[in-house]
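Running co-folding for adenosine-5'-diphosphate.
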Amino acid sequence: MPLLEVLGVGKSFGSLQALDSVDVTVEENTFHGLIGPNGSGKSTLLKAIAGDHLASRGTIRFDGTDITNLQPFERSRLGISFKFQITAVLPELSPYDNLLLSAQAEYSIWPLVRSRTKDSLHDTVMEVLERFSLIEYADDLASSLSHGQQQWLEIAMAMMRKPKILLLDEPTGGMSPEERRATGELLLPIKKECSLVIVEHDLDFIKDICDHLTVLDQGQVLDHGTVAQVEASSKVQEVYTTRV
Ligand code: ADP
Ligand code: MG
């Protein structure tokens, strides 16, 4: 059974059909890229999966549950973690505290006052800081981090919830080429723990880290398959050479 199944999903905004009969399947422990021209519906699809938008038509199944009409917090509890394009980092807190807060959003407050839970949370926070190359800035103000580091902190915050799937919308926007390369290296190890659906403009970046791609065009799936299959697709080449 796939981890995530998007089946015939449509989303209308008034008379605009942002998504039209979209099918996407994501297996466990795989990275899935969403590409396509501006306005093709990539962000809308991520939001429909996260519950930020409700699908107007179709079904979304996650880990055996029909989540089509669930609230975002219910989807989050089932293991869907979404990092938005807009920042969620609290700039006046340290990276350590940002991570602690995002973990606490998932647990009830009572177990937290018991020291054992606090200690294990501390260990988890330190481990995640280490993993996202933020350990040396653990107690600095988050606002003093570089743009790229703030993006990594947000990804780290999303990972604190131990998701089964992580949704990222253009995480490398505004990053230097060096930060982009580092982002790929930071993301790859999480494949052992969860799946990823990622929207990216940088095709080289997405080709390097993804197993499968879905290409959207005007709200419809233009093509999908392995990176090699999509690269060889004449339909995709036509869209990318003539319209992007
Ligand atoms: P992408 O992320 O691929 O650039 P989007 O999913 O943001 O595209 O947008 C797809 C289409 O839906 C665009 O035409 C956009 O203007 C429209 N759209 C997206 N969000 C909304 C909204 N909240 N209200 C109205 N129209 C929207
Ligand atoms: Mg978008």
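Result summary
The mean pLDDT is 90.
Residues 13, 16, 18, 36, 38-44 surround adenosine-5'-diphosphate (ligand 1) (CB under 6 Å).
Job closed.
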